[in-house]
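Possible regression after last week's pipeline update?

I re-ran a chain I had predicted before the update to compare outputs. Posting the input and the new output here so someone can diff against the archived version. Not blocking, just want to make sure nothing changed silently.
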Amino acid sequence: MNPQTHLAIDGYVHQIPAPGTGRGTAAFDLIHSPINADRIAPDTPDTVFACTTDDPNLATALLNHIQPGELLRVTGTLTQPDSPGAPARLTVDGLEILEAAPLPAPFDLVLERWGSYVAVFDADRDAVPVFTVDGTWVGEAPAPT
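New output (post-update):
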């Protein structure tokens, strides 16, 4: 029998959470870094927790709102792995977003402003959407050649 402990852990979401094995469940990996990294050995590895939840509200939040790179505080029951080297399992019953992930940078988009107009150049499109600076749609223009 594995010992179980109820605790709170702060960590970063590694990948987009995935649906769990049953309806209303979700699974994700949480990366926890040592708090006082300067006081411990510099090569101390991060800890990976294999997290699951069977709370439908938490699963919905995880599947629809949580992005990789977000810092979360999760509470739940920790179960040690059955085999060495496997991640510890955390059954999550509480979730708090401590820090949102940075917005992804659109590498293929270029915004250009002319007075009160903004054009969005997209490498994958032939048309150029044009807006006013307050976000009002103006129309599309052909891409410059």
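Follow-up from reviewer: compared with the archived run. The chain has one helix and ten strands. Marking as no regression found.
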